[in-house]
Amino acid sequence: MGLFDKLAGWLGLKKKEVHVLCLGLDNSGKTTIINKLKPSNAQTQDIVPTIGFSIEKFKTSSLSFTVFDMSGQGRYRNLWEHYYKEGQAIIFVIDSSDKLRMVVAKEELDTLLNHPDIKHRRIPILFFANKMDLRDAVSSVKVSQLLSLENIKDKPWQICASDALKGEGLQEGVDWLQDQIQAMKT
Amino acid sequence: MAGHTMRLKVYSGTGLASESILLDLPSAVATFLMDQNEPRTPAVAVASGPFVYIYKNLRPYFKFTLPPLDVNPLEQDVWEQAKEDMIDPLTLKEMLEGIRDKAEIPLSVRSLRFLAQEVQEMESFVNLHKGQPIKRQTVITCMSTLKKNMADEDAVSCLVIGTENADVLILDPEAFTILAKMTLPSVPAFLDVMGQFDVEYRVTVACRDGNIYILRRESKRPKYCIELRAQPVGLVRVHKNIVVGCSDETLQGYSQKGKKLWTVYLPAPLMTMSLLDQKSRGFQAVMVGMANQEVHMYRDKNLVDIICTQDVVTSICFGRYGREDNTLIMTTKGGGLIIKILKRTAVFEEKDTSLGPPMAQSIRLSVPKKTRLYVDQTLRERENAVAMHHVFQMDLYRLRLMAARAYVKALESSLTPITSTLQEPLKMNAVVQGIGPTFKLTLHIQNTSAGRPSINLLVSFLYDQSLYSMKRAFFKAPMLVPGLNYPIETFVECLSDKGISDVIKVFVLREGQSTPLLTAHINMPVSEGLAAA
Ligand SMILES: Nc1nc2c(ncn2[C@@H]2O[C@H](COP(=O)(O)OP(=O)(O)OP(=O)(O)O)[C@@H](O)[C@H]2O)c(=O)[nH]1
Ligand SMILES: [Mg+2]
């Protein structure tokens, strides 16, 4: 970092950059969540299923996030692991109303946690128990039970109930993530 | 899903989405796309009795009825007469019985029911029914679908129906007219259809006569026939092969022309079978639900996986369910519904657990090239086969003769350590101990008879007196009680210090007889100690 950059950092002109991976099954609401975190003039109206992945950026009070919004479709899930090395934090999104595929979400989470590029790192994971507004959605406590989150002992994690359509619960989660990343850097 | 409770239930995710009451027991259910309309929602066809009920958007939409069959003109005549009161019920009965026993076209249900009536009820039965025309109706036994003219996943499909009067019908997806009709030698029980109606297709039918018939486009009659040893209980096509499960607990594979490829013996009676088609990997296997609460997965004849369930599985379906492409849905005898999703990373490994030639057999060995010597030898063997065989036989006879002679000689001179006479069954072995020049010689003698003691036996040693000396070379053996082992010890002194050794012969004799009962040759070791002298 050059002297100018440092100065800019102290003055709060330039924010620290972090790379975040946004993972989760298809249709869980990853793109919708990230879209909602962007400034309202940069949000898109129509959200279509992601093909491959897309790179999105948004800022919080002290960080500048670069998000890899991965496609959750089965045939693209093998792409995820190629970005594990670069990721400094993970956002894992779950469709709380999709009880049938909770096992699939757990399977993918377990595969992620056991991957050599993730396994021994204290990388923070933020879970969004999304689609809380739907009638047959299960609670975030139930989601964390179904995914056995209590077994994650060596990484900081947090689960937040969210409704990405209205934007509820998102800020709370991102604030936690920001704190974790800053604690990690200092 | 259609069940014995006569309800059509539609599930979405883990919850029931809709439920409709059926009018009659369903015999088959199929889903298919009837038209090109968007969104592409499939229709559900439920076959029961002579009808196919079509549901669209979870609502009843259309009812198709099988066309009536021809009625026997004679039967029609007699009912006409009954209507005009020209014949009484008893005559009607006799005439119908006559028709039933002889005619080619079977009687209608009405006549059959009439024949089953008690005499006093016949009159009222006739009066009740004689006004209506006679109809003969068949029922549906099985149903499947066939793409109309495109192979796409969401292409429009025709219904294919098997009927109780041994016909196979193909229906137009929109107009429900009969596009094709084929007749089988027996009643179809299971159907498998591949191809496209307008291009080329193939209908494989397992029938109640225990045969499988293969029909093709433009063939009114079966093209191939597979005769099974037992009744078929399930039929699945894997790629181009036919896999059939039989009531004798076997699973059999056939080529599309009916050539038998393999048989697998199942551990329990088969309940149901279905195809596992993992399209993303081009993997196909047959799933077999059995009475022992297991579902086995076979790729050809190789078992690739076993699923154990809490209850006996009665039907299996594999395919896309909601957002998951590879979902396995099973219903159980007790009314349960099991949903399993295939792991994204799952790989089916072939373990050759079945009987028959192992996989390794089909691997080609790298056989070395034939040498000149090998070729010459083969030629020689081919040309002189007879002579070579003679020589070999001659040598073999000689060998046998020599062996027989030696055996006889040994018997005659009692050279064996076991007696051959039945009167004195004895066994002996000798042990030499020591390093010389004095050796301890122990004879173990045993009377092996059941209950007769041996008395008056003598033991004699024969040896080279210039080499060995013995205190007692001839003595009387004690009485031998049957079964006991008698160790008899003597000492032998080696007289030579030149490092040579010899054989000492031991004879067991009966008093007054010169031929020994037993003989043993003791190979004396070389004396390693110095002579005491
Ligand atoms: N009711 C409800 N619907 C939501 C919510 N979040 C997202 N959706 C809807 O869920 C659907 C899928 O959302 P996406 O954001 O495309 O999901 P995704 O995880 O990016 O899916 P892929 O890109 O295919 O991996 C869209 O129709 C969204 O409108 C939510 O909180 N509540
Ligand atoms: Mg997306």
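Chain A has a mean pLDDT of 91.
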